[in-house]
Amino acid sequence: MKKINKAATIKDVARLAGCSIKTVSRVINDEPYVTDETRLKVQKAIKLLDYAPNISARRLVQQRSYVICILLHSAGFYQSAVLSKVLEIGYEQNYDILIQNYYPSHAKSKKKLTSLIHERRIDGLVTTPPCDVDEFISELLTTSSIPLVQITPFNRSGNIPFVIGDDYQGAMMVTDRLIELGHERICFLSGPRNHRTSIDRQYGYRAAMESHQIKMDDSWILESEFNFDGGYTATKIAMSRSVKPTAIFAGSDEAGLGALYALQELGIKVPEQVSVCGFDDAAHSKHTWPGLTTVHHPIDQIVEKATYLLLDILDGKQLESVQVVVPSRLVIRGSIAEVNKNI
Amino acid sequence: MKKINKAATIKDVARLAGCSIKTVSRVINDEPYVTDETRLKVQKAIKLLDYAPNISARRLVQQRSYVICILLHSAGFYQSAVLSKVLEIGYEQNYDILIQNYYPSHAKSKKKLTSLIHERRIDGLVTTPPCDVDEFISELLTTSSIPLVQITPFNRSGNIPFVIGDDYQGAMMVTDRLIELGHERICFLSGPRNHRTSIDRQYGYRAAMESHQIKMDDSWILESEFNFDGGYTATKIAMSRSVKPTAIFAGSDEAGLGALYALQELGIKVPEQVSVCGFDDAAHSKHTWPGLTTVHHPIDQIVEKATYLLLDILDGKQLESVQVVVPSRLVIRGSIAEVNKNI
DNA sequence: TTGTATGCGTTATCAG
DNA sequence: CTGATAACGCATACAA
Questions:
Q1: Among all residues of chain A, which has the CA nearest to that of B57?
Q2: Which residue on chain B is closest to A65 by alpha carbon?
Q3: What pLDDT score does B3 carry?
C-alpha cells in the first residue's frame, strides 16, 4: 500500500524516467516520435508513481473543458427518460456531462447558463423542450458562439442542428386506429402551447380526423397540461358534457394516465365504455391496468443522436445532415377497443 | 452588439481599469482592502469587457474542481427521485454536480471512478445504493482520501458520514396497520440482498408480525426484485399457493405496482379481496387505481441532507453529527381494506 | 490600500 | 526522435 502525500506531476514522471516532460506528454497523449524504449520507461514511471494528468491544467492550456451541458426543465417522465440515456452516454464517453436545470425566461436560469458558457465550463450545449422557448438560447449563440444541438426545438427555422421525433405522424396513426375501431367522438387532450410536440400532435390528430371526414370542432380539443393532473381534469370535464366522447386521446402518457384514473374514478370501464390513448410510451404506461395504448416516442434514440451530434461537431467532424427526424411507432395495449355507442 | 474575438482575461481588465491584476482579483473575490473608488472602476471595466474568470485557471491554481460527483446505479423510480433533487441542488449551489453511473464490481465503473478522483475532476463523492456494496468505494478512501457521504449505506459500521431513512420503523408501521385491519396472512415481497433497505424493511415486517404473535414462517417472505416484474411474478406465485395471502406488502412501490397489476390480471379485486402495500411513496403510486398505500421514504430530504453534508465537509465546517436517520411516514390510500377471509 | 513576482501542471513551439 | 522554454489565466505570499 503506497501512501500519496501529493499527487505526482508530469515533472516527477520525467525525472524518474530520465527524460523531459515533453516526452512524457507524448506518451500520455499517444503521440508519435517516441522510441519504444523510452515509451516503456515512461510508462513504467507512470505506473510506479501512480500518475494521472491534472485535468484542470490540461483544460486550461487547451482552452476546452471536455464538458457538455444538457439543459433540462423540471422533472417528470420525459426528463427521467432523457437523463437515463444521458448518463449512459456519459458513462461511455470521455466528456463529462453536466446536467443543468433551465426554466425559460427565469433570470436565474439565464445567469447560470451565461456564466457556464462565459467561464468556459462547458464546450457545448444540448437543449430539451421547453428550455428553448425563450429566445435566450439562440441569442446566446450570436454573442458567444458555442456549439448547440436542440432536442425537439420549439422553432425549427434556421440551420441549428436538432433531433426530433415524428409527432405529427404518430398522432395520425393513433387517431386513425381509433377511427378504424369505429370511434368518431374522439377527444384530444392537448398540452401547453410552448411545446413543439404538443402542437404537432394536435395537428396530426386534426389531419387524421379531417382525412376521414369526421365532423369535429375545437370543442373536442381540450387544452390541459402534459401531466397527470392535466389529463385527469380534462377528462372529468369531457365526461361531464352532454355529448360525451367514446375515446380520449391524450397528447402525452402522463395525461393519459390521468385520464385513465379519472374514468376509473367515475366508474367508467376502460376500454369497454371509453377507449384511452396516450403518447410517448413512458416507462410506466405498460404497468397500469389496462395498459395504455400509445405511440412510442423514441426518446432514447433522440437523445443519443443529439448528444453524438454535438460530440461530432466538437470533434470537428464534417457532417452531412444535422437535422434529424426519428420515426414513431404505434404501441397497442389494453386501453382501446371497438366503439361502444351507448355511453 | 459587441463581438468577442478572444475572451477577456484578468489582465485586460487590469489594464482598462488602470490597476494591477491583484486588485482585480480582489474585486472578483470580494476581498477587503479596496477603495470603493477603485472597486467601481474595476467593476466597470469588467462589465465593459464582458469579463468572466476562466474556471480552469482558477481550478488549477486552487487545486480544487468545485465539482462533486453522485454515483447512481442504473435507472428507475428511485434514481429519478434522487436526480430531480440533485439537479435542484446543483441549480442553487456553486458546485457543479457530476452524475455518474456506477455498477458495483464492474471493472469499467471502478476505472471511471478512479480516474475521476485521480485526475482531480471531483472534490467529493456521494454514493446511492447499491453503489457501495462492493468494497471498492471504501478502499478508495484509504488510498486517495476524498470526502465521501453515503446515502443508505450497505454497511453502517465505521464513521463514514451517511444519511438514511428509517426503513425498519416504516415497515413496522405498515405491517401494524394491516394487522389492525385483521390481516394475518400477510405476504412480504423482499428485494435483493445487496440493498440495505431491503433487509431493514424485512426486519420491520418480521418484528411487527412477532410482536402481534402472528404465526409465520419464511414461506411468507418471497424474494424478488425491487421492480415491477419482481412484484408481478412474486404475487403470481403467492396467489397460486393453496394458502393464499389476504394482504401483500411489497418492499418497494415498484414491486407494489407489479403486485397490483398481477392481481387485476387475475381478476382479484383490490382492496376488497386482497390488500396491497408498497414502500417508498414513488411519484406514481398515487396515480394508479386504486392508489397504493405505502410508506413515504423521504428521498428528497435524504438527498438534500447528504449533499449539503458533503458540501459542508468540503467547506471545512465543523459538524456535530454526520450520521443522520430521517423518519418515515405512513401514507394510506385505496389499496388496503379490512380483511376478507373468503379468498 | 495596492502591486510584483511566482507557481499551479499541462500542452505547444521550435530548435537541437 | 528529444528537450528547453514559453504560454494558459488566475491566486497568493510578500513587498511597498
A1: A60
A2: B56
A3: 36
